[in-house]
Specification:
The protein is α/β, with parallel strands linked by helices. It folds into 2 domains: about 30 residues; about 220 residues, no CATH class. Helix content is about 40%, strand content about 25%. Strands 1, 2, 3, 4, 5, 6, 7, 8 and 9 form a 9-stranded mixed beta sheet that branches. Helix 6 links the parallel strand 5 and strand 6.
Length: about 250
Amino acid sequence: MSEELELILLREIEELKRELEKLKGEPISHVPTYQYSKINFEDLENIFDIEYSEERTAFEDWFKNSIELSEDIITFLKELLDKEGQYIEYYYEEDLKIKFISIILNKINFTLKDKKIKDFYEAKLTYKTDKFILTGTIDYVVSRGLQRAKIPYFFIQEFKKSIKNDDPRPQLLAELVSAIELNKFKSIKGAYVIGSIWNFVILEKLGENKYQYFVSENFDSTKIGDLKGIYRNLLFVKDEIIKTVENFNHG
């Protein structure tokens, strides 16, 4: 390629960039962008100082709650297991979500219009810094806002058959970090689901760009004792979100 042709091409490229900037109304960003659905642990460690903690006492307040389930709820859970329990391990993501998980979440009922709290599937979330951008679609989030998710409080990530398909943990952690930074929280809760197994997660902010996370023991949703524990844990989250919103409104 001649020098003259190369200069012409470079000028055309620069002109295209300027036109794109005008269309977008903002400069073209050279900051790396990470999609939640594709992020992995290596990416996380490149952009954050994030560490796993084996300390299980982090879950004591959450799991040792005093919530008691009514006989109606216990019957509901038993009937759900009788109907779907034997199929859970064979379901694909959408089947698992629609036939089992969403039924539980609807029973919990995170839609509280008077407090402007609602749950959303396939919500959009973006967190931008001058060093990186995290963006993408969230599987499930409980948030402030009735028409769209505004202040995320709790996430559930990936309704997959197996961790071999795709590891949901880095995606969930990236979403939790985004929520902590966007909301100026110190900690946030979430969960990920792999087939019948639920794991609950707590992320804490330790300092600037520094975090630690805790992962619970397995809860096997095909066992009624574990399923009742999952239900109580979700009710605890609902109560905690309500208290957070009430404290914010009175603050």
